[in-house]
Design brief:
Blueprint (H helix, E strand, L loop, with lengths): L25 H33 L4 H6 L5 H19 L8
Amino acid sequence: MDMVTTPPPPIGEEINGPGRAYFDHVVTDNILDALIELAAEVWTTRDRVSVLETVLAEQGIDAAALVEAPIPSPEQAAERKARREAFVAQIFNSFSRRTQ
């Protein structure tokens, strides 16, 4: 039995492409893409924090207490704000694709 297969798109084509189509409505697809991106980010962060806390606890360091104690300087607060805005832009980037 011969199977006809479609060759994969050139590497990088999806980066600026229309995005994945899951449902009939593009807005629903964009929401799902945003949710998937967010879930991936949250899981990666949780996993890394867990590993870090375990490694530090093995060294006798209470990471949770150390993380909660400091008050950021204005420069640190500005840097955190910029990183947060970049994160939000990344998550909601899906809404800027495929409008039809």
